[in-house]
Automatic annotation (TrEMBL):
<keyword id="KW-0732">Signal</keyword>
<dbReference type="InterPro" id="IPR006059">
    <property type="entry name" value="SBP"/>
</dbReference>
<dbReference type="InterPro" id="IPR050490">
    <property type="entry name" value="Bact_solute-bd_prot1"/>
</dbReference>
<protein>
    <submittedName>
        <fullName>ABC transporter substrate-binding protein</fullName>
    </submittedName>
</protein>
<feature type="signal peptide">
    <location>
        <begin position="1"/>
        <end position="19"/>
    </location>
</feature>
<dbReference type="Pfam" id="PF01547">
    <property type="entry name" value="SBP_bac_1"/>
</dbReference>
């Protein structure tokens, strides 16, 4: 069994990828979907099964939109099902009994699309004149490969630095760290360590988001010219060295002991909410969670610290997405497309993402007044316009690449392999998949 500290590292490493809350998942026929319709379903109505990964309040927001669609479209009725086990989606598709519409994470689009699990949407896009130029390029790129569009991104996720203003002020800081050097200084000063190395507070969890910080050092995971995976790129190595340097200041045993007492992410005991972390790297949904679980927290949001030797790389970061797609083999793809097209129009996109505290993927949705009451939206919206944001390379082997990289990243931090050995293992396992 993996140790709890690595579980927390994964949460921090991939929290931007998920952007989903926990809680009891409303199933098909939830309260939102049972509201009376202005237009009762037609007797010969097409019924679409819609599987989505959101749960709790986020699922309720989605069910409200489904009810809105059903009310206006008696000929196409949608039944929502909160199903966060994405392997079941794939099993249903390969078994010939797929849902009619489904959600996914952007990093899974190209692998699934190339393997025939997702229908290309380009003919529908062209026929209905959907303006792909209205989508943020970094977000749209997660759904496209070699001229084909396999999904429509509905929400965009980016990480920023959150900091506890009270803790920083007590330490003599009147603002967040701006550079990598500042960050290392802050972490050391803000951490509280008892005799014997027992941790009471961490300035920042050292198993940081390796993707975000790799881009802060201008790292690249793939060389298009040579068609080689590059987990050993100098920028990626710099990001790992940063985390390793901080990790070694405290040691795996002390970090494991500390992490075993941390509260749940989706609760008032979240270590950032409770003051166990002075700073954290997290996504645009966190302010909405803070409002729900820790409304009195005095916090700020800041850009990811940059490498002072490369100031042109300010405001770097990793972009991920949540998407809607049509599984291969559905009986009514035209109806499925009509629903997806409607869901990803600016008005519905804003209604959904504002409820979740996510960023929309369409430029025309940014000015929707619904976002005025979303905490942290302005900071993340401004940040989302940075030219230094990147996405993990879309490929058929992206999942295998990220899984192996994460495993070796953990091993490097814990000292069970050297950085050279760990990154060589990633390259040896993934490069054969390129072809």
């Amino acid at each position: 069994m993996k140790k709890k500290s690595w579980i927390w590292s994964l949460i921090l490493l991939f929290s931007i990828v998920t952007g989903c809350s926990g809680g009891n998942a409303p199933q098909a026929g939830s309260d939102a979907g049972d509201k009376p319709s202005d237009n009762p379903p037609a007797q010969d109505a097409v019924t679409l099964d819609f599987w989505y990964g959101w749960t709790g309040p986020e699922a309720e927001a989605l069910e409200a939109l489904i009810a809105k669609w059903n009310s206006a479209n008696p000929d196409i009725q949608v039944k929502g099902l909160s199903q966060s086990d994405y392997q079941k989606q794939l099993t249903a598709i390969t078994g010939g009994n797929p849902p009619d519409v489904a959600s996914q994470f952007g990093q899974n689009v190209v692998p699934w699309g190339l393997r025939g699990a997702m229908m290309p949407l380009d003919d529908y896009i062209a026929k209905d004149g959907v303006d792909l130029k209205d989508f943020v390029p970094a977000a749209l790129s997660t759904s496209q490969h070699e001229g084909k569009t396999y999904a429509i991104p509905t929400a965009m996720h980016v990480s920023m630095l959150f900091y506890n203003k009270d803790i920083l002020q007590e330490a003599g800081y009147d603002g967040p760290p701006e550079t990598i050097s500042d960050l290392k200084e802050y972490i050391k000063k803000l951490s509280v360590v008892e005799d014997g190395g027992r941790l009471q507070r961490l300035g920042l969890w050292p198993g940081m988001d390796a993707y975000t910080f790799s881009y802060a050092f201008n790292g690249s995971f793939y060389d298009e010219a040579t068609q080689q995976v590059t987990p050993d790129h100098p920028g990626i190595q710099s990001a790992i060295k940063l985390s390793k340097e901080i990790w070694d200041q405290y040691g795996s045993d002390n970090l494991d002991r500390f992490s075993s007492g941390l509260g749940q992410y989706m609760s008032a005991q979240n270590p950032f909410f409770s003051g166990k972390y002075a700073m954290t790297i997290d996504g645009e949904w966190l302010p909405t969670f803070i409002k729900q679980y820790s409304p009195d927290l005095n916090y700020g949001i800041a850009p990811i610290p940059y490498d002072e030797s490369n100031p042109e790389l300010k405001n770097s970061g990793n972009v991920t997405t949540s998407v809607f797609y049509i599984p291969k083999g559905v009986k009514n793809p035209d109806a499925s497309w009509k629903f997806i097209k409607w869901m990803t129009e600016p008005e519905q996109m804003a209604e959904f993402t504002a409820a979740l505290g996510n960023l929309p993927t369409r430029n025309s949705a940014f000015s929707n007044p619904l976002y005025e009451d979303v905490p942290g939206f302005k900071e993340f919206l401004d940040y989302s316009g940075s030219e230094n944001l990147k996405s993990f390379p879309a490929s058929s082997y992206a999942n295998e690449y990220m899984t192996e990289f994460s495993a070796q990243y953990d091993a490097i931090l814990r000292g069970t392999v050297s950085m050279e050995e760990g990154l060589d293992k990633v390259k040896a396992k993934i490069q054969p998949l390129v072809k």
